[in-house]
Amino acid sequence: MPIVRIVELDREIEIPEGRLLLQGAMDQGVAFGFVCAGESACATCLVKVVEGLDSLPPRNSVEDFLSKAMLLETDYRLACQTPAGSAPLVLSFPSLARKS
Ligand code: FES
């Protein structure tokens, strides 16, 4: 199970391969803001992939549409649409940074 380090919390969690990053983080008690409950409508689950981007699958069509509309760099993903891969990740959640 890949280790995922969350920069803002200085914490490591485990997210099973294939589990969406949003769900996996919530499973481990990470409470970060999101509005649309994973419906790809708000982008409040935005996450910067600091390390491990190559291990993630490409954006699905919904995430791709929203990312292009927001002019997001390729290292930003929607946690509600992105499943964990098999490699470790380092993630930065802008919504967590705003809370601290
Ligand atoms: S939770 Fe709204 S886009 Fe991900």
TrEMBL record:
SUPFAM superfamilies: 2Fe-2S ferredoxin-like (SSF54292). InterPro entries: 2Fe-2S_ferredoxin-like_sf, 2Fe-2S_ferredoxin-type, Adrenodoxin-like, Beta-grasp_dom_sf. The keyword Plastid does not apply. It comes from the Bacteria. One of its GO terms (biological process) is P450-containing electron transport chain. GO terms for molecular function: 2 iron, 2 sulfur cluster binding; electron transfer activity; metal ion binding. Its cofactor is [2Fe-2S] cluster. Signal peptide: none annotated. Belongs to the adrenodoxin/putidaredoxin family. This is Ferredoxin. The lineage of its organism: Bacteria, Pseudomonadati, Nitrospirota, Nitrospiria, Nitrospirales.
